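[Solved] Which block belongs to which protein?

Original post:
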Amino acid sequence: MRLRTQIFALIVVAIAVLIAGCGGGDDTTSSVTKAQFIRQADKICNHADKRQEVLSKKFSIEAAGKNATKADQIRILRAVGLQPLKLEGEELGALEAPDGDEEQVEEMVSAFEDAFAEADAEPLSMLQEPNGPYAQAGKLAAAYGLKACADAA
């Protein structure tokens, strides 16, 4: 009987430790600095640019010598332009924002998501200058200090 009491006591102590460790998640702070966030975000945007280049080369070889219809242009814009940008927005949204910059980062990420939704609904808007639906996202990215994301938008 004594062994059961000891096991029960150990379980109670373990539960108490777990409960104490689970409290007050509100006091956590971000472990990422603004400079680290900018490096990570620009890496994501550079990667999206490279995906667009690769896809663009693939589609230009396919389309060589053909007259592209409006439907062809939309298909190509969706595949070459929008798919990498969709992934870019998702990856940017998954980054941890630096302490104190959460609101600014959320506004920027939302602008990228809104731009994608607009471009997805009307792919030919991607051909508008300057930057079509991504103009606002690019401005917010530049204002935060991002280079590749501002240029990619």
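(Second protein starts here: sequence line, then its structure tokens.)
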Amino acid sequence: MTDMTVQKRSLAWLADKLRESDTKTDFQRSIRDICRAIGAKHGSFLMRHVPGVVGDDPFVADTYGETWTQHAAEHKYECVDPTRSLSEISIQPVDWADLPKGRTRLRKFFRDFTDFQLGRQAMTASFRGPAGDRSLLTLTSDATDKRWMTTKNDLLMAISILHPAIHRAVLKTRFNFENVIAIRLTPREKECLVWAAHGHTSKQIGENLGLTPATVNFFIDAAVAKLSASNRAHASAKAVALGMIAPPR
């Protein structure tokens, strides 16, 4: 059994454990457990635009601590915090190192974030549900620039498995909200998405299911359209979040 297989099984177990979370403290503890399991320094989950909830940012759970929370509030960093605007401009995970830091307040935010020892590097991913619900998952690291690429790949794998699970758990337990749009995938569409979620190509999926690559693409494209996703990875993540397919193991 490879190290990657062991890590995926560990992440899948953590995803299942999220179903037991109920309170904000539970989710903060879960995020702390996730960080410990994957070697991240800190983590933050932000839920936005939940249907039926008035106001922005109705739910936040992180491991940053009260000192940073108070400092950020005093300096009104919610106005410049890059994670607050990422959900509006990108559905792909964003490396904080790639963000423009031209504005003075934004440079101060990054400087303070580092000074508070919350992490030298960070990655934020956005997840959008079918009813307009949105969430952001940020994981930080103290990896050096030289080791960051390897560490980033590990964080990306964790995000792909855990972010949909956290999103779904928060919607269900904190807001008593299930998917309000009836989305039905055919058995073949689900099968193809399951294999796609494990990183298999259309050719590999076809060989496993006895289909041509073109037929696999047809089923995956149909699922992408039904889920209002941008690509197969996004569709797989949504299908996991909605409980249509099991998370990768």
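Accepted answer:
You had them paired correctly. Confirming on the second one: The first strand starts at residue 43 and ends at 48.
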